[in-house]
Write a structure and sequence with these properties.
The chain is an all-beta fold. 0% of the residues lie in helices and 34% in strands. A hairpin with an 8-residue loop joins strand 1 and strand 2. The two termini are 24 Å apart.
Amino acid sequence: LIFGPVAILRPPVHADEKGRFEVPGLRHGLARAAARKSADHIYTPDTGGLEPGAGDVTVILPSARTLTLALVDEDDNPVDSLRVFARHLPMPDAAEIPDFLIEPRQNVDSVSQDEDGRWLIDDLDPGVWDVLIAAEGFGSVRNTYDLTHADLTESLILHPATTITVKVVQNDDDATPVEWALVSVRSSDGEGNRRDDGPPQAITAARCDGEGEAELQDLAAGEYVLEVTHPSYAVAQQTLTVPLEGEMPVIVLSVGGTVVGTVLENGGPPSKILMVTLRTEDTETLAGAMPRMT
């Protein structure tokens, strides 16, 4: 019941003002139920199930959590604008799950500011949250926050943002521009590697236009790793330093190879749809973050 009910045998029903619900027409056997406060929340299973007609099934919804962010600029002035994109991770070590599988949602209705200028993100389910913080004029910040047991308060200094344009070309004599390549940006440790304490997912990303150029917005000063993916080419990585010195960065793509395999379960085809991910031998980065390789 991480993502939802194991099997929905009846259409969802709504509880009344007293929190009670009724599902008719069930056959004899153990009945289970799962409920959620709204479509923006995850399902919570019941406390153990019940035989139909033997009493009530009880679902105890957990108390919502609040993430409080004290955001200031480099001069210690409060940041007065904020956009928040957040996704609830189904398990503590699931930050590697790519955004296209668990998509961040913009928490417009649940973001407010208190009298001290702090930003409150409330109505969050208990658990681990992957949060992207974006404020106009500042570089985006992406962190994970553990709200499993209690609310959390975090203080952050936001740095001025800049926009960088990069170009992606083929590895041929004409340096042909590559359209629709996805350029994503991750934090770097300064040596060309992704920071161990940084978010596995991209801080920002952009698609290349017909000239092979991608505009990367909301980048603060610092070291980053660019990763370029395209269905017809091998994955390419390149370091980037902001602010940019010199000419526009150019990333060269080579034609990629194809891995063909078979998944068997007890000698036959698997009983359910599977997602296959690949790892290279010298990295811990999940290739599942690249849709073309799944």
